[in-house]
Amino acid sequence: MPDLLSLQNVSKHFGGVQAVDRLSIGFAPGKITALIGPNGAGKTTAFNLIGGLLRPDTGSVRFEDNPISGLNPWRITSLGIGRLFQDVRLFKKMTVLENVMTAFLKQEGESLWRVMLVPWTETGPEKVRREKATELLEKVGLHHLAGTPAENLSYGQQKLVAIARLLAADARLLLLDEPTAGVNPAMIHKLLETVKRLATEGKTVIFVEHNMEVVRNMADWVYFMVAGKVTSFGSPSDVLSDPEVQAAYIGRHTTEAKLTLGGESRVETSRN
Amino acid sequence: MNYLFHIAVMINIYIILSLSLNLIVGVGGMMSLCHAAFYGIGAYIGTLAMVNWGWSFIPALFLSVVGTAALSLLISYPSLKLKGDYFVLGSLGFQSIVFIILYNWIDVTRGPYGISGIPTPNLFGFKIQGLPLWFAFSTTIMGVCVVLISLIMDSPFGRTLRSIRDDEIAAGSLGKNIPWFKIRTFAVAAGFAAVAGMMFSGYMRYIDPTSFTIMESVFILSIIIIGGAGNLQGPIIGAVVLVVLPELLRFVGMPDAIAANMRQIIYGLAMILLIRWRPQGLLGEYKFS
Fold this sequence. Notes:
Number of helices of chain B: 13
Structural class of chain B: mainly alpha
Radius of gyration of chain A: 20 Å
Distance between the termini of chain A: 9 Å
Order of helices and strands of chain B: HHHHHHEEEHHHHEHHH
Oligomer: heterodimer
Radius of gyration of chain B: 18 Å
Mean pLDDT of chain A: 88
Strand order of the largest sheet of chain A: 6-7-8-3-9-10
Low-confidence stretches of chain A: 253-272
Strand content of chain A: 15-25%
Order of helices and strands of chain A: EEEHEEHEHHHHEHEHEEHHH
Structural class of chain A: alpha/beta
Number of strands of chain A: 10
Largest sheet of chain B: 2 strands, antiparallel
Strand content of chain B: under 5%
Strand order of the largest sheet of chain B: 1-4
Number of strands of chain B: 4
């Protein structure tokens, strides 16, 4: 099956720092893929390149085989790519329900003419959006908090609302930037269950994560990045047993040569 | 009684101005200091159409709203690039430029001489003359504006605008076309300010650029800061308080020369106290940070 999303020879630098270096990676549809690596490896930059917050210096990002690099974030989202930010970024002054209702794409009531001249035509669609948003909150187990201001939620609950928001935006590809960071253990379980269920329902998930237990339990595939390049790819057990990965995460020493793998960043590994 | 009608007409005009600025500042989160520019552009476009071309009030009002909304692009477009404090300065620049044009383009605006003899609004043969009629007319127009603005605020458009205010990057990543929302917000707010401008011009029957200075922009913003931003009731109560307050000073027997200065001191003091102890204003929901 062709990749849903691919980065082809993508590079991005900030001043003298090469954040992403000729990166060529692909993501299979309906799978959960982890992007791991030490701080500064280029994982979040890769997300920013996919989501349109950054434009690549070279190379291209393709979604369903169409080029998307250079498009505005809102255009990319409307194609079906949604992002959970590392710092969540809920609309904190708004209620949980409003957060989710805002995310529906192409709302008729976003037309000023319609709102001012025929306001009664909005009643029906708004009711439908309210019901759909409530259903999505039920899906993430937070419907009982629908009327609560988002700023009053725990961090884990905020992340679940953000996921419900992505679903409302009809995202088929979910980019989750450190979904479990700062979340209490009980809530991590709920969060992961939700993400796994979404994948079984056909969503494609890419997540950046530092918790290797989470990676082992969640991911179908893992990319390990160092200095803007992928140096290891495969199943979680393969990648996590790689000495270089172990060195990065549990401090085991390895050779300098292995740590700075050069050349091609594409790691050819069968994913079938 | 006529005196009370006059105060009520002025309150109605400032309610329209503060509620429309509230769309930009309180709902959209863009601190703008150029609302008097839209107010003035609206007043001048419609008035010139009536005085120079003999247009009647309704078509002139329509031209004024459309023209001012279109000219709002001159500030809404830069707002896409200028963030935070830089946008405040940009809006201040826009306000100054508009004032300078109104003041110096004498062939068109008659500059400091102003435009006098502005015809009374004529609605399908019915002239709005006398303070009781002006009170009824301005209250009706204000009521229509309040309903329209409340429809906007309660709609998905208003909800998305609040989301942009809370977190622009997150709103963009949810598929919201941020530039398009900002441009439309400025256009609709400028359109409402133009309505207020036409009311002012028709009521006073004389306009000159000194009614549309930076001080007027600051005054409209003060209404929002003191009354409260982000909802309907804040700007409305703010307009009532700030229009009525200086009038009350007349009744304590203060000479006019001192009362004018005292008014400025009271505004300043009220703002400092509110920002310190009640940053959301008297009845607002949005805290200025």
